[in-house]
Amino acid sequence: MTIPAGLDRIDLMGVSGHGYHGLFDFEREHGQQFSVDVSLGLDLGPAARDHDLAKSVDYGVLAKGVHDVIEGDPVDLIETVALRIVDMCLADESVQWVSVTVHKPEAPIAVTFSDVAVTIERSKQ
């Protein structure tokens, strides 16, 4: 992760949910667990100085939004899940940079593995 200089960070790790994302019919029928990590880059100084959550990001609201995407409309690729979450995060005017990693530990892969994940990073600048 490369957060731009001058930005602070909020990390939300391991938001999990049961989603129906994947290319195969059995993935769409039975679903599987997905886990998401989110890092947000923003200036936390105003919130810290003023003790004002409105000048930060409410990570409870963020977690609910991530969970809703995981359990929402099915898509073929976890890349699409990640991009939906990135777009949701960047809709907050205080967020200047975001990194989203979507984990699919039950992916239908023919060899032993512990996890497969995609990461998308975007910035407003």
Total number of domains: 1
Helix content: 25-40%
The H-and-E topology, N to C, reads as EHEHHHEE
CATH-assigned fold name: GTP Cyclohydrolase I, domain 2
Structural class: alpha+beta
Q: Could you say which overall geometry the principal axes of the C-alpha atoms support?
A: elongated
CATH class: Alpha Beta
CATH architecture: 2-Layer Sandwich
Number of helices: 4
Strand order of the largest sheet: 1-2-3-4
Tell me the Rg in angstroms: 16 Å
% residues in beta strands: 25-35%
Mean pLDDT: 95
The CATH homologous superfamily corresponds to GTP cyclohydrolase I, C-terminal domain/NADPH-dependent 7-cyano-7-deazaguanine reductase, N-terminal domain
Keywords for this entry:
125 residues, alpha+beta, elongated, GTP Cyclohydrolase I, domain 2, 30% helix, 4-stranded antiparallel β-sheet
Describe the protein.
- There is one protein chain.
- By secondary structure, the protein is of the alpha+beta class.
- The chain has a single domain (8-123), classed as GTP Cyclohydrolase I, domain 2 (2-Layer Sandwich).
- 30% of the residues lie in helices and 30% in strands.
- The protein has four helices and four strands.
- The chain has helices spanning 25-30, 45-50, 59-70, 78-90, and strands spanning 8-19, 32-42, 97-103, 117-123.
- A four-stranded antiparallel beta sheet has the order 1-2-3-4.
- It is elongated.
- The mean pLDDT is 95.
